[in-house]
Amino acid sequence: MTDDLPKIDRWNSEPLDVHTWSDHPEIKALCDQLYEEAGLLVLEPKGNRKAKRTVKESLRVLILDLYVKWLKDPSISVGFSKGRKAYTVGSRYNGLHIPRKVVDVEAMLVEASYIVELKPFHSRDHRTRNYTTRIRHTETLRCLFNDLTLDLHDIDTHANEECIILHDKYVDDPDDDTNRKIEYSEEQLPSDELALLDTLRSQLHAYNALLKRTFIDIPSYTSSTFKRTITKGRNAGRKQTISLGPDNKFVTRVFNGGLAGKASGLKHLQDLTSLINRVRGQIFGTKGGLSSERGWLIKFTSSCRVLAVMQAPRFECLSFDPFARE
């Protein structure tokens, strides 16, 4: 069977999203079929110890992520790390507890001709960028995808995902931060910082829940994605496919340098909490709780400096800078 897609372009890729999940019966049936045909039964544990995620569940996350990227752009590949620390069960950045056994699942899908690989690239020259393995669906798997009817609204692409992220240093490439996230224990935080962190996380959870149940559309734009090529910096020439669908409505807060730079991290938390309260008052005329009005969309830009506010059914957009002087 001839593959009708161009060869994998390692620059046209997105990292594996380990928070992709769906209980749709069609995806369950597909994973059952792949489990049997790829012979994944041999990966099941022999003893009585029960894993947090079964082989079938790890398979489902992998297949769903490939499916989501296929829906957006069939040419996109998945950056698939095979490192020992890439899948830590219990990590706050691995909310679905995907184990390292997913690497074995991927290998057997390659053997069964459902996935094709582009090998990783590693250089000793620190000025040269390294790349993880790239994987993509084969024509065989795409034929199975074509039989599915579920769309992005049936898939949760942020299941149990942490919204407070710490980096050990500044990261300007969202696709290159897998090994730079800091694990932090809330038990080690002073009570005042823990209370502030809980407040910020609960507010972001509330905003994300609001975004999730709000329909967003651009009537004048017919495509579900926006494509751009980076023209400057170390990533010049790299292609990006930005989704305009329900899979791209999740707000996170990233602290570069770690939360316990203490002064820096705590100040950022206080600043964002103050910002949220200020914006809430400007939009809803209240300082306590989210508005009970339905159909509102509140969206942060990546810098958290501008908010877009839309209201159904007309989806009128109001944009302003909450940091501007009154």
What does this structure look like?
It is a single chain. The protein is 29% helix and 15% strand. It has six helices and eleven strands. The strands form four sheets. It has a four-stranded mixed beta sheet with strand order 1-2-4-3. The protein has a three-stranded antiparallel beta sheet with strand order 9-10-11. Strands 5-8 form a two-stranded parallel ribbon. Strand 9 (296-300) and strand 10 form a beta hairpin. Helix 1 (25-37) crosses helix 2 and helix 5 crosses helix 6 (263-284).
| Average pLDDT level | 77
Provide the structure class. alpha+beta
Strand order of the largest sheet: 1-2-4-3
Uncertain ranges: 174-179, 258-270, 279-326
Q: What portion of residues is helical?
A: 25-40%
Shape: globular
Got a strand count?
11
Alpha-carbon distance between the two ends: 64 Å
Largest sheet: 4 strands, mixed
SSE layout and pairing:
Elements: E1 13-15, H1 25-37, H2 55-72, E2 77-80, H3 102-111, E3 115-118, E4 133-137, H4 139-146, E5 164-167, H5 191-212, E6 225-229, E7 239-243, E8 253-256, H6 263-284, E9 296-300, E10 307-311, E11 316-320
Parallel strand pairs: 1-2, 5-8
Antiparallel strand pairs: 2-4, 3-4, 6-7, 9-10, 10-11
Helix pairs in contact: 1-2, 5-6
